[in-house]
């Protein structure tokens, strides 16, 4: 079968023939239909410092996907050939304290699909049945392909109650924009998002934010005044990993404000902990999705009319992967999709 492979320990990716994966115990064989390009995939293509430590070649990339079930191992129930499915890309041990307590997203031995084992940038992929999410209600394949990052957005946005709250989102990448759409849909009063990219701020406006603020020319405090806020934001969603973004967020939260952090910094940095303490601000780190409460919430949000179509801005055949990756790396885009049927 065709697969997109990190074949060598150097920058680049290679479209090549690899053996079709064998169906193991308790696994599901899936014909891949669409995949989404993630920032992680860009790091692996560039073979930066993180990728050099995290991956071993050869490796089939990809963890954002939708496909059709082809076969299931004996004993697998609830999943059948023909089902449209997405996959939870965090494979957990099942035996640690958190896994046994049902907190699988907190497993210390998590293996990443397309990072620690061959992934979904291929014509076929296998996954443990426990990692397969069946779409019981029809979902557009492009949207189903990005359930993984959509789940990051939902997990972050729904970490704290949002009804009637004023929400600040720093970072208008695709996940930040999806989080803004979720916050709006979930009943937030105001949703302000910040970035330095006019293109992405315009995308955010298309999902209905109250204010898309270019922090090159305006401050978050300016945004507060524009929205008529006197006491600061109630909920913060930090999506950028930028030191200045978190520092400004902390400075503009109301007393008792709550911040969920998904953006991953590249290095340590200082924050005003005295302000965090005296303002009684809650900080919560987010990684991945809650299995499977977040997945349930995603499906229900889409059933309830949440529209993610503005976030998807590029569609390519898998054969044109270099062009697709170049667009994704360029920053003037939302989510970029590879079609494995074209």
Please explain how this structure is put together:
This protein has 342 residues and is α/β, with parallel strands linked by helices. Helix content is 29%, strand content 27%. The chain has twelve helices and 18 strands. The chain has helices at residues 39-46, 49-54, 97-100, 141-144, 147-157, 174-185, 198-206, 220-227, 243-251, 273-278, 293-303, 321-330; strands at residues 2-6, 14-17, 27-36, 59-60, 64-72, 84-87, 90-91, 111-112, 124-128, 132-134, 166-170, 190-195, 211-214, 233-238, 253-261, 282-285, 312-317, 335-339. The protein is globular and about 60 Å long. The model has no long low-confidence stretch (mean pLDDT 96).
The name of the CATH superfamily of the largest domain reads: Medium-chain alcohol dehydrogenases, catalytic domain
Structural class call reads alpha/beta
Individual helix count = 12
Stated plainly, the CATH topology of the largest domain is called: Quinone Oxidoreductase, Chain A, domain 1
Radius of gyration: 20 Å
Number of beta-strand segments: 18
- Shape descriptor reads globular
């Amino acid at each position: 079968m065709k697969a997109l492979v990190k074949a060598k320990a150097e920058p680049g990716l290679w479209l090549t023939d690899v053996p079709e994966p064998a169906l193991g115990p308790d696994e599901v064989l899936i014909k891949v239909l669409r995949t989404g390009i993630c920032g992680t995939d860009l790091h692996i293509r560039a073979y930066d410092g993180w990728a050099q430590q995290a991956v071993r070649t050869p490796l089939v990339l990809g963890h954002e996907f939708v496909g059709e079930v082809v076969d299931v191992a004996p004993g697998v129930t609830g999943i059948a050939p023909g089902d449209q499915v997405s996959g939870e890309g965090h494979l957990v041990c099942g035996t640690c304290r958190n896994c046994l307590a049902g907190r699988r997203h907190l497993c210390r031995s998590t293996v990443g699909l397309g990072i620690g084992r061959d992934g979904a940038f291929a014509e076929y992929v296998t996954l443990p049945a426990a990692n397969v999410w069946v779409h019981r209600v029809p979902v557009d394949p492009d949207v189903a392909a990005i359930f993984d990052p959509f789940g990051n957005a939902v997990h972050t946005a729904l970490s704290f109650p949002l009804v009637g709250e004023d929400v600040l989102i720093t970072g208008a990448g695709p996940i930040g924009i999806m989080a803004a759409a979720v916050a709006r849909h979930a009943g937030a009063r105001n949703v302000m998002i910040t970035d330095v990219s006019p293109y992405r701020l315009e995308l955010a406006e298309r999902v209905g934010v109250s204010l898309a603020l270019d922090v090159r020319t305006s401050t978050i405090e300016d945004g507060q005044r524009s929205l008529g806020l006197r006491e600061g934001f109630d909920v913060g969603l930090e999506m950028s990993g930028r030191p200045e973004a978190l520092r400004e967020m902390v400075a503009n939260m109301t007393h008792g404000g709550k911040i969920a952090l998904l953006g991953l910094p590249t290095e340590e940095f200082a924050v005003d902990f005295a302000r965090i303490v005296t303002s009684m601000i809650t900080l919560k780190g987010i990684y991945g999705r809650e299995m499977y409460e977040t997945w349930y919430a995603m499906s229900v949000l889409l059933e309830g009319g949440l529209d993610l179509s503005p976030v998807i801005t590029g569609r390519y055949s898998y054969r044109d992967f270099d062009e697709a990756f170049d667009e994704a790396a360029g920053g003037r885009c939302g989510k970029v999709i590879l079609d494995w049927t074209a």
